[in-house]
Amino acid sequence: MGKRERLPALYEAFKRFVQTNGIIQRGSKVLTAVSGGVDSVVMLDLLAKLSSEWNLELAILHVNHQLRGHESAGDEKFVERLAEFYRLRMYTARVKTKEDAARKKISIQEAARHLRYAFFVTKKLELKADVVATAHNANDNAETMFLNFLRGTGMDGISGIPVQRRDTGIVRPLLFATRPEITAYAKGRKLKYREDSSNSSDKYSRNFVRRKIFPLLEKRLNPSLVRTLLQSSKIFRNCADFLDEYVRGIYPEVVSGGKDELSLQKNALRKQHQYVRQMVVHRAFIEEGIEPFAERILSFLTLLDGEKGSRIECGNGWIAENGADYILLSKRPPGSAFSYSLEKEGTVTSGFFSLSVQKCRNVPNKLGVDSSIEYVDAGKVRFPLCVRSWKEGDAFVPLGMKHRKKVSDLFVDLKISRAAKERIPIVESSGNIVWVAGCRIDDRYKITPSSPGAYKLSISDV
Fold first, then answer.
1. CATH superfamily of 339-461
2. Is the dihedral of CA 418, 421, 423, 429 positive or negative?
3. What percent of the chain has pLDDT over 90?
4. Domain 259-331 classification at class level
5. What is the DSSP secondary structure assignment for residue 209, as one 8-state letter?
6. How many helices (H) and strands (E) does the chain have?
7. Does residue 433 contact residue 407 with C-beta atoms inside 8 Å?
8. CA distance 353 to 387
9. Are 402 and 444 in contact, with CB atoms under 8 Å apart?
10. Which of 241, 302, 298, 304 is nearest to 275 (CA)?
11. Across residues 275-291, what is the average pLDDT?
12. CA distances (Å), 352 to each of 28, 276, 338, 459, 462, in order?
């Protein structure tokens, strides 16, 4: 790793790129993500040179994903030696990538990316650094654009890799450089680096594009494919930024709600241009962690003219259900049907509600308007009580009525979504519905002047 006095032209281009994009300021504290591969080793060398001119404070971040046994351990040791050579502090994370992927039911590559960036952002905050630099290059950008285009991720996806992410402080100071330029710099500077054996496997989509598709496209259609896509990504990024600003402005008019449940107002969505509709749904998907594939977004938008009550699967456990005035995007409730037995007074607690039945000494003189609390005739209730999920065909006599009504019709009247009603417990006594929890009691169990006592029924979220 010996240094020569004269540096290749790549350094000057690197410094211009950093200055032009304003991604690193003089005197900044920069955390440098180093895997040990040629890209990150070259970026570290360039930053070390820039540091002497700009008075930067550098440190190294390394993530050992523990995916390649001794090879991963060797990468970590190699980066430790780099830290010693450049006289920099090093912070390492050893993560269980396979276990995390299995637990979250995602690919190993996706799990690795999430773990890696979580570590970067955590250390940035902990060390009060200004930015975290990653070594993505022009080839990485071209591959990302191509893959995103095939996945149908829209304008934001085909914009490629952003130069910086202001929300996380991630910057890519090497994004302008092609892989051959980086390799040539490493050779000219006699820099040592590690080869990742997994890069030679075509089972990964990115490697297949890199090793098979791009060489054919460069040979047959465009020898400057990577540079062309880099220039196109700048145009797409500017367009995406403009559209994103517009969508952010109208988003609150269309979308409301919070974690695990969003409502999209149909009339407000219809007023927008077709593309803006897609971007609003795209943003809603992103906020809830749903992969924003084009076919999912287009399928979602068919609900605007669909039948009331129709619904579609959005992936990742999410469903969209068509209401009269809105489309509800919600997380599918855990599990399916549920049933609990209460042998006496007490409480039933599930993953999403807590329901209590308590005997009252005196019949309340005045009943409240809180739908989460009801009182029923103690003389008509028989234990054990069954607390179960709603099912097709359920019917009861709603308070104030004389005839039976289907519970499903009550849900429609109250504009309760399918996702929400699957979480609503039914309280049943001797085969009769006593309470559709949080909605309505059965008229036959209401308190009358002759009631010998009352049971207080209450429900709350958990």
1. Phenylalanyl-trna Synthetase, Chain B, domain 3 (3.50.40.10)
2. negative
3. 64
4. alpha beta
5. I
6. 16, 22
7. yes
8. 11
9. no
10. 298
11. 90
12. 47, 35, 11, 10, 5
